[in-house]
Design a protein that fits this description.
Layout lengths: L2 H5 L20 H8 L4 H8 L1 H6 L17 E4 L16 E6 L2 E5 L8
Antiparallel strand pairs: 1-2, 2-3
Helix pairs in contact: 2-3
């Protein structure tokens, strides 16, 4: 992805097989996307809805909706305010895959 592609409105999706970041650290790619001109929210969409649409799986993946597969990452802090929060696995406090908790980190703020 290039800044020119972003400037021209090309829809981008998060991917892990190009070797841009080490395996298991693919959320670092979101920060790179922001550096190239995407907003933090658009970078998150690149890793969720856009990726699901690219794979033609958006009827079951990509957004949090009733009837869809619940793959969810919860982090400490607001990644829309600071996309780099997602780069550090220590900030990821909960991961759900297909509705099952597969990682539970330190306690999330009160009321959550």
């Amino acid at each position: 992805m290039s800044g020119e592609a972003v400037r021209r409105g090309v829809k981008v999706a998060l991917g892990t097989d190009a070797g841009a970041v080490p395996h298991g650290r693919n959320l670092q790619e979101l920060g790179h996307m922001v550096q190239l001109g995407l907003s933090p929210l658009d970078a998150i969409r690149a890793g969720t809805l856009n990726a699901a649409q690219l794979l033609r799986l958006d009827q079951s993946l990509g957004t949090v909706e009733v009837g869809k597969i619940a793959d969810v990452v919860v982090c400490e802090g607001d990644p829309v305010a600071d996309i780099h929060l997602l780069e550090d696995p220590a900030n990821v406090v909960l991961v759900m895959q297909e509705g099952r908790i597969v990682k539970r980190g330190r306690a999330v703020g009160a009321g959550v």
